[in-house]
Design brief:
single chain, two-stranded parallel sheet, 5 strands
Length: about 200
């Protein structure tokens, strides 16, 4: 773990100092878990850690970064630290879904692509609703289809905001109404994270 220790020790003071003890522990945990899973080949970059801190603080995050900068790892880190949570990632292209599924699985997060090729197999959907997959990469067209809406209606997306989310979406009329209601009821705080070449 020497590379991870070096990278951890080289984090900018202005990033580390304002963090609470629990946030600093999350940073150490993210380095340790990623180092273990990738056998020392990956360490989080600064923009990924900023993204992680915002997501763990229940903020929505917009990340702007070049291809290959590490946006996918920014999505992976919160799931490494929250193994009991499930993410729904809306991904427009099947090829991108496939790449993301491979990367998430490689980093120890069971994932599945949900698109028009996903079979309407009751056993598969029972596995999905039982939480066998920790990241659902969903094509936007699938958000309005019956199998996915049934997951939502069954309370699949329970979070710590249960009283604000599940009761609202028990009988959805449309996915846009669900999105509007969730966004307004959770009153999110937004963070924007930019990846720069200096972020390593």
């Amino acid at each position: 773990m020497s590379l991870a220790v070096d990278a951890l020790e080289n984090l900018p003071t202005e990033f580390i100092e304002p963090l609470h003890i629990s946030q600093r522990q999350n940073i150490v945990d993210s380095f340790a878990r990623l180092d273990f899973l990738t056998e020392g080949t990956k360490q989080p970059k600064l923009f990924q850690l900023k993204c992680l801190m915002s997501l763990l603080a229940s903020r929505h995050v917009v990340v702007r970064a070049a291809t290959g900068a590490g946006k996918t790892l920014a999505m992976i880190l919160p799931l490494l630290l929250s193994p009991n949570k499930i993410a729904i990632t809306v991904t427009p292209l099947k090829l991108l879904q496939k790449d993301h599924v491979n990367e998430f699985v490689q980093d120890g997060i069971p994932s599945i692509a949900i698109n028009h090729d996903t079979p309407h197999d009751k056993t598969l959907w029972n596995h999905i609703s039982a939480g066998h997959y920790k990241n659902l990469l969903v094509a936007s067209a699938e958000l309005r289809k019956k199998p996915f809406l049934q997951l939502i209606m069954a309370g699949f997306c329970e979070t710590e905001h249960r009283s604000k989310s599940i009761t609202v979406i028990r009988k959805p009329r449309s996915i846009s109404r669900i999105a509007r209601t969730l966004m307004s009821s959770l009153r999110p705080r937004w963070s924007t994270v930019h990846a720069r070449s200096s972020d390593g």
